[in-house]
Amino acid sequence: MVSEDLKLRILRILKESRNGVTQSVLARALGVSKSYLSTVIRELEKQGIVYRVRLGNSYIVKLSQQPLPREERPRRLSLGIVWSSEYLFLASFAKMLRDRMGIELQVRVYPSALQATLALVEGEVDAVLSPFVSQVYAYLLTRRLTIVGGGARGGAAIYAIPNAKSVVITSSELSTMDLCRALAIRKGVVDAETTRYFHHPEEAVAMAKMRKVGYLVVWHPLMEDMERMGMKRVAMCDEFSEIEYCCTLALSRSLDSDIMERIARVFSESIELFKRKAHLYLDWYSAITGIDISILKRALNVYSYEPYIDLKKVMTMVKAMSVEVPDVRQLIPDAILKTM
């Protein structure tokens, strides 16, 4: 049984160090073995009292419930999202953000990946759930964001339009759909001569109805519109091994680094909770986006969820995008990256 006295000693040390203490230093300070300390720390983690951040081969232990000075404590977090059925975990995130950090989540819905991501770099929102692809381009141009959390994979497909008037392929711009489009052309999955972009979900549906393009790359729930109109599914975008993520969580670099780290932790834990109780969170998301609950229930079978950012997956996607990110650890800090 873990000593309550040892737990109190750990908490006293952590309260004196806002930046946390490495697990090895804690073991030496307390005069206990590293393995025994790991057992105690895991128990405190389960209780939501502390959390660990991986840094190289070490772990830094921090207080998760440590109150911020009032002047540093944000009262709300404005989050931009792309209109879709993807972020079904948001109600879980909102609740944990309020309970753990006293922050109210305010959600703004945008019609495209580009608009949502621009809202972050222009200071309209504090955070954004948008395609990893969009966030990388925005970072390279502005250096105003940091990616701090995983998200969803899947939920996008390429459709061929029967009796189309052209062999144009269309997708949203600088997004997962755009990367999917580029890979489909590169691999010979589609025979498209030119590319055209749409900027609103309704524009994509109109293009399909009028058969103005030969192929569309769309996300859920637009996929259901394509199916109803009799469009032929050519491929799911996650069939391309290069597409490891759809959307990820990015925060404005104007936020304090400690706050960013804590938000990242809450975000990852909220996805883990959502994965265990997904059906509990659909009403709230339906009210935010206007998407019918019956569609959201089907979306549960379309997306898979990854709470963390994996370095190997990041590099795979960056390579597929044919861009160079010279400072990946500025885009995604070591404390956030899942390297193992």
UniProtKB/TrEMBL annotation:
Taxonomic superkingdom: Archaea
| Domain HTH cro/C1-type span(s) in chain numbering | 11-38
Q: What SUPFAM superfamilies does the entry give?
A: Periplasmic binding protein-like II (SSF53850), Winged helix' DNA-binding domain (SSF46785)
- Please list every transmembrane segment annotated in the UniProt record, as residue ranges: none
What Gene Ontology molecular function terms does this protein carry?
DNA-binding transcription factor activity
What InterPro entries does its record include?
A: ArsR-like_HTH, Cro/C1-type_HTH, HTH_MarR-typ, WH-like_DNA-bd_sf, WH_DNA-bd_sf
This chain's protein is named MarR family transcriptional regulator
